[in-house]
Design a protein that fits this description.
By secondary structure, the protein is mainly alpha-helical. Among the domains are: 77 residues; 43 residues, no CATH class; 100 residues, hypothetical protein PF0899 fold, CATH 3.30.2320. The strands form two sheets. The chain has a three-stranded mixed sheet.
Length: 372
Amino acid sequence: MLESVKIARRQSEIRQKLSELAGKESPSDDEIRSMEDLDREYRQNETRYRAALIAEDTERREAGADLETRSAQEWAEMMAGFELRQVALALDEGRQLSGQTAEIVQELREQGGFRGVPVPWQALEVRAGETVADGTPTPTQTRPIIDRLFPDSVAARMGAQMINIDAGAVEWPVTTSSVTAGWADGETENVAGPSAYATTDKSMAPDHNLGIQMKITRKALKQTGAALEQAVRRDMNGAMGVALDHAVFQGSGANGQPLGVITGAATYGITSTAIDAQASWAAFRAAVTRFMTANTAGSPDAVRALIRPELWDYLDGVLIPGTAVTEWDRLVKNIPAGNIAMTNNGLAEPSGSPLSTSSLLTTRAGGVAPLW
């Protein structure tokens, strides 16, 4: 039995005994001394357990390396016993193969169909720089195209909803009236006076056009096949996704671009608060509190945050004095990591002296998407 397993079983026995002693309301002096001895043994076993795990892991690695080396050596010895002389005599005179040569040929035939006598590559002599004449052909195999890498869309992670408009415009009536409740000041009194229910239409129209043009010649398609067209389409989709992400948050509203959420915060009525302090969980906590109060978010885990990678790098490097907890640990403890989207495309690069950056908070209050 492994030493780590023995220690783990002993630890389980100690925990069981400690639980029995701890359940007594008035333990005796002997029982208290027994608890102290068990606690001391438990802490010592923790150190022994970690040491045993490290030693066993080292033994496993050494044994695995030995098995890999042994397998490679056995295969090399088997290939060394393959005789091409027997293959030549079998093809020329019809002699039967024997020994390791026959075993290897039989194994190759079982792996795939062959005409004649299969010969393993390892049995051939490897030479370099033995070209006899110039102009020898160099066959080339073309593998599938490796596409460009594009960042994942962060607009969807921030709760944006994509609307497909075939023609015309689509509008959503949004309630803008302030209906308040009031108590009747007396038995015959009335409640608060009637309030008008008002809505404002928020319309969306396909006023902006985003596209890409790429040229593929007929000759290129004939030489490469349909895979070229599919690769081009994937490349175009990735490039358009990057451009859409940038426009959703940082669109300038000029030269055909839509007005982005961050760029047009004042136009859209989005509250923007400047924080003249170093980035910290306290600053985020205050912002989340204001955000929850203004947007009826039920809890911090209902809030989504968009940040730059540089902000994560800074927060993860700031330790709380006297602890091993970072500002980033405190942030993800309240706002789940799945609700935090990092982007180098949706937010502007940190600038100024000292460097300053922006962050965007959203929520789906009432199931309504924050972005359309």
